[in-house]
């Protein structure tokens, strides 16, 4: 079965590689010739654990290839996936679907026999209808169906999410298209993965509703963490206590500096704008987006407070810059707001991230970039952990104190135990947990 994947960003590349692992013949397409050249040399343009070896194996097996020639890739394909970016549109926050529509026009010119065009990109409700109209207008003679098939990939665990997903959602009213989609996902049927067939608008909305709900869950526990600090409660225990309720669940109940990444910020905003455009309101989601924006700035103030109310002229060590571990993605990362706020308050920031340094250097100015975690701590007044990479979970506390001017740690991910940190001689600040008295 021949598949074309339009777009080699995070979703397109992971999906293309994983489909080839299913045994399908996959051609991935991108207009960026440099990116395609790198992929053909076996170089990944992004970081995702395990993706490099999986890609190499399928290229060697002849099931996976990369090209800039969309027409050649689409010719003879039974399914053509649109997996291009849909960033927030400047000025109003709507999802920018111009790349999706551009891909649709190019696909229209290339399809031959019956083809299923699959929207893998995250798109507002109604985008599939417009894609169908564009292709129908350009090729009234063509046999095709447009299907919505949203992705639910978590950066850092995307391969497992694709190979063993919680569910697959397919939006189509065409049984002919659904038959093609069943063949595409046959390996998942064999392991009894839930496959949900819906209408196209329903499928498009499921993706936004899922991300908005998870963003709401994160924001909720962050607000509970703020209350915990005021009343002397422990947000870890609160999260455990409510998470054991099967109706609530334990995931996404980790207090921290707010959500970031390529999905939650833009998708929550796009959902709000879609509702507003239709004359409605998404009041909960509106509050979530506002609270999350404010929270990142509040985290910078937490660091300032731990330094006695001022960081002017002080050096702050920062560990972790990407929005989460196991990715190099800096999009909407809390570190962007936190580092900028510290610099604006007069601090010198020394920073290190195990994977995201190149991306961070492209988005942050005036930072002292360090070669490892301990290098950040030289003459620092405080150490702050923004991203919970595993290598930051077992620091040598004696070595840390020997490098720093003062043993102050601000742990925005709660990876250490407050009592143990106090016993180690640190002035320790965390999120939503009682701090032991400072000696």
Give an account of the 3D structure.
This protein is α/β, with parallel strands linked by helices and 439 residues long. The protein folds into 2 domains: 197 residues, Rossmann fold, CATH 3.40.50.720; 234 residues, NAD(P)-binding Rossmann-like Domain (Rossmann fold, 3-Layer(aba) Sandwich), CATH 3.40.50.720. 44% of the residues lie in helices and 13% in strands. It has 17 helices and 14 strands. Strand 4, helix 5 and strand 5 form a beta-alpha-beta unit. The protein is elongated and about 75 Å long. It starts with a strand and ends in a 10-residue tail after the last strand.
Short recap of the structure:
With about 450 residues, the chain is α/β, with parallel strands linked by helices. The protein contains 17 helices and 14 strands. The N and C termini lie far apart (about 65 Å).
What topology does this entry show?
Elements: E1 2-6, H1 10-21, E2 25-29, H2 33-40, H3 51-60, E3 64-67, H4 70-74, E4 79-82, H5 98-110, E5 115-119, H6 127-138, E6 144-148, H7 158-163, E7 168-171, H8 175-184, H9 186-190, E8 195-198, H10 200-231, H11 235-243, H12 264-277, H13 283-306, E9 315-319, H14 334-344, E10 348-352, H15 357-363, E11 368-369, E12 382-385, H16 397-403, E13 408-411, H17 418-423, E14 427-429
Parallel strand pairs: 1-2, 1-4, 2-3, 4-5, 5-6, 7-8, 9-10, 9-12, 10-11, 12-13, 13-14
Helix pairs in contact: 1-3, 5-6, 10-12, 10-13, 12-13, 13-14
């Amino acid at each position: 079965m021949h598949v074309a994947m339009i777009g080699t960003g995070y979703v397109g590349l992971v999906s293309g590689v994983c489909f080839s692992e299913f045994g399908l013949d996959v051609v991935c397409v991108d207009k960026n010739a440099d990116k395609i050249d790198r992929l053909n040399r076996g170089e990944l343009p992004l970081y995702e654990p395990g993706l490099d070896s999986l890609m190499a194996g399928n290229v060697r097996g002849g099931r996976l290839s990369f090209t800039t020639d969309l027409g050649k890739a689409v010719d003879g394909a039974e399914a053509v996936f649109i997996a291009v970016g849909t960033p927030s549109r400047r000025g109003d926050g709507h999802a920018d679907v111009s790349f999706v529509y551009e891909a649709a026009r190019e696909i229209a010119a290339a399809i031959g026999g019956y083809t299923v065009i699959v929207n893998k990109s995250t798109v507002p409700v109604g985008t599939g209808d417009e894609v169908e109209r564009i292709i129908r207008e350009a090729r009234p003679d063509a046999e095709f169906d447009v299907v919505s098939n949203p992705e639910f990939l978590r950066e850092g665990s995307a391969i497992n999410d694709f190979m063993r997903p919680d569910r697959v959602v397919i939006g189509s009213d065409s049984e002919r298209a659904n038959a093609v989609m069943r063949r595409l996902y046959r390996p998942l049927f064999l392991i009894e993965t839930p496959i949900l067939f819906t209408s196209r608008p329903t499928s498009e909305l499921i993706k936004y509703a899922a991300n908005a709900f998870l963003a709401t869950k994160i924001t909720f526990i962050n607000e509970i963490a703020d209350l915990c600090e005021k009343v002397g409660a422990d947000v870890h225990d609160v999260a455990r206590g409510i998470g054991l309720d099967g109706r609530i669940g334990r995931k996404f109940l980790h207090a921290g500096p707010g959500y970031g990444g390529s999905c939650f910020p833009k998708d929550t905003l796009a959902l709000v704008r879609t509702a507003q455009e239709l004359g409605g309101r998404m009041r909960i989601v509106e509050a979530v987006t506002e609270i999350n924006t404010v929270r990142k700035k509040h985290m910078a103030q937490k660091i300032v407070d731990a330094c006695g109310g001022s960081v002017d002229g002080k050096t702050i060590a920062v560990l972790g810059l990407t929005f989460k571990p196991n990715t190099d993605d800096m999009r909407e990362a809390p570190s962007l707001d936190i580092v900028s706020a510290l610099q604006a308050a007069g601090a010198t920031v020394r920073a290190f991230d195990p994977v995201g340094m190149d991306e961070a250097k492209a988005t942050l100015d005036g930072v002292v970039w360090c070669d490892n975690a301990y290098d950040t701590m030289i003459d620092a007044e405080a150490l702050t952990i923004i991203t919970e990479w595993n290598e930051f979970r077992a620091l040598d506390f004696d070595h840390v104190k020997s490098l720093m001017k003062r043993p102050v740690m601000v742990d925005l991910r709660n990876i250490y135990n407050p009592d143990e940190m106090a016993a180690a001689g640190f002035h320790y600040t965390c999120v939503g947990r009682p701090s032991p008295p400072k000696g």
